[in-house]
Design a protein that fits this description.
alpha/beta, TIM Barrel, eight-stranded mixed barrel, 15 strands, 44% helix
C-alpha cells in the first residue's frame, strides 16, 4: 500500500462543498492523487473495476441512496485493503458505532472526523497512515520462517523494552511493562506485530515467553541493586496458561534470580481468556498462591469482563487505551472509564489506565480514582539501561506538572 502524500485517495460525500473543502485540505497536505464521488454506487463501481485503486478512503456516513454504513459493507465484500477515515456531522455515538463496525470487519480505520472537518484533525488522522495491519489483531501476516526465529532465540536477538507505570497522585514510579522487540539483523528493531504471528504459527510462543520473563527478572534485579524496587509486568499467552509446568518455571526462575514473586505481574488479555478459560483457572490460581500478580489486560475489549473479574484471581485491571485517550472530551468514554475504576475499587483491584497520550488525558485521570497510568505522555518504552536516568528526570517533570495543576 502506498503511504504518505503519494497515497491514492478516494473521497465520498454527497455535499459538494465538503468535497471541495476536503480536496483543498488534502492538497495543502501535498496529497495530489485525489478522486471524489458524490454517490456511493459510483465509488463502489470504481472499486469493482480495481480493488487496489485506492490506498485511502474518506467516507461520509449520512448520504442518500447508499449511506456510509452500507458503503463499508461493500468495502468488506470487495476485500478492500487500504485505510478508511469516517466523516460525519452525526451524533458522536453514531460515529463511534460506525467506527467499531468497520474495525469489527477488520478494516484499517485511521480515525473519524467531525463536520465541518478541521485541517489539524485531518493531518493528525492521516499521520497514522502506514502499512496494512489487521484491525482486529493489530498484527501483520506471517512472514518469518521457523529457522529464522529459532536462530533469533538462540542468538538472543529478542530484547526487552520497558514502559513506566506511574502513581497518578504521587508521581512515583511503581513498575514497568515489559514489551518485547526483535533486533533483526536485516530490518532493524521490529515491534511485536511484525513477528508474533510467525512466532505463534511456528509453535515458539512458550520459548519466547520464557526468554522474556527471564530477561525481565534479570533487569529487575539490576534495578533493585540500583535502588529501584519496582514491579515488572510481562504479557503471557494462553499457551503458557495451559502449561501445567508454567508456575514451577516462574518460581524456579525467580528463586535463581532472587526475584520477589510479588514484584512480578503477568498480564493476560480478555480475548485470550475467552479461548480456554477453564484450562487457565488452575494455572492462574496457582500463580496467585505463589504471590505472583495477575493483571487482566485491555479491559473492555473482550466480552465477559465482569465474569472474569468475579471468577478469576486478578489483582490488577488495565483499562484499554481505547477507553482512556480522549475520555476528557468524550462523555461515553468517560462514563466507561469511571465505571471501570469504580468497579475495580469495590472489588479491591488496583487499576492502570493505558494510553495516556497528552496532558489533557493526564489532567483528566488525575481527577479520577485511578491508581496508576502509562502512556506516551509519560514515556515510551525504553531499554532497561535507560530507566534509571529517566526516573530521575521524571521526578523533576512531575514536580512541574503538579505545580501547573495547583
Amino acid at each position: 500500500m502506498t503511504t504518505g502524500p503519494h497515497a491514492r485517495v478516494l473521497v465520498l460525500d454527497d455535499d459538494a462543498f465538503i468535497l471541495s473543502l476536503l480536496g483543498q485540505m488534502l492538497a495543502r497536505l501535498d496529497y495530489k492523487d485525489v478522486t471524489t464521488f458524490t454517490r456511493g454506487v459510483d465509488a463502489v463501481n470504481a472499486l469493482k473495476r480495481d480493488t487496489e485503486a485506492f490506498d485511502l478512503i474518506l467516507c461520509d456516513l449520512q448520504m442518500p441512496e447508499m449511506d456510509g454504513v452500507e458503503f463499508v459493507r461493500h468495502l468488506v465484500a470487495s476485500h478492500y485493503t487500504g485505510a478508511l477515515v469516517l466523516v460525519s456531522g452525526e451524533d458522536s455515538r453514531i460515529l463511534e458505532a460506525a467506527e467499531s463496525l468497520a474495525k469489527a470487519h477488520s478494516l484499517q480505520v485511521l480515525g473519524t472526523l467531525r463536520k465541518p472537518p478541521d485541517p489539524g484533525a485531518l493531518a493528525a488522522v492521516l499521520a497514522r497512515l502506514g502499512p496494512k495491519a489487521s484491525a482486529a489483531t493489530g498484527t501483520y501476516q506471517i512472514q518469518y520462517s521457523r529457522s529464522d526465529l529459532q536462530q533469533a532465540l538462540l542468538a538472543r536477538g529478542f530484547v526487552s523494552h520497558y514502559q513506566p507505570k506511574i502513581d497518578i497522585i504521587t508521581g512515583d514510579l511503581t513498575g514497568v511493562e515489559c514489551l518485547v522487540r526483535w533486533q533483526n539483523p536485516h530490518e532493524g528493531l521490529l515491534l511485536p506485530g511484525r513477528f508474533l504471528p510467525s512466532i505463534e504459527a511456528h509453535g515458539l510462543m512458550d520459548s519466547l515467553t520464557e526468554m522474556v520473563i527471564t530477561m525481565a527478572m534479570q533487569d529487575a534485579r539490576r534495578w533493585r541493586h540500583d535502588g529501584l524496587d519496582i514491579s515488572v509486568a510481562v504479557n503471557v499467552s494462553m499457551s503458557s496458561l495451559t502449561n501445567l509446568a508454567f508456575p514451577e518455571f516462574i518460581a524456579d526462575t525467580a528463586r535463581a534470580l532472587e526475584m520477589p514473586l510479588n514484584r512480578l505481574i503477568l498480564e493476560v488479555t480478555e480475548t485470550q481468556l475467552m479461548q480456554n478459560v477453564v484450562a487457565a483457572y488452575e494455572i492462574l490460581t496457582r500463580l496467585r498462591l505463589k504471590r505472583v500478580g495477575l493483571a487482566i489486560d485491555d479491559f473492555g475489549v473482550g466480552h465477559s469482563s465482569l465474569a472474569k473479574l468475579r471468577d478469576l484471581p486478578f489483582n490488577e485491571l488495565k483499562i484499554d487505551r481505547g477507553f482512556v485517550h480522549g475520555a476528557w472530551r468524550n462523555e461515553s468514554l468517560a462514563v466507561f472509564l469511571k465505571a471501570s475504576i469504580g468497579l475495580a475499587r469495590q472489588l479491591g483491584i488496583s487499576t492502570v489506565a493505558e494510553g495516556v497520550e497528552d496532558q489533557d488525558d493526564w489532567t483528566f485521570l488525575r481527577a479520577t480514582a485511578c491508581d496508576q497510568v502509562q502512556g506516551w505522555f509519560i514515556a515510551k518504552a525504553m531499554p532497561a539501561g535507560e530507566l534509571g536516568a529517566w526516573a530521575f528526570a521524571w521526578k523533576e517533570r512531575f514536580g512541574a506538572l503538579s505545580g501547573s495543576l495547583s
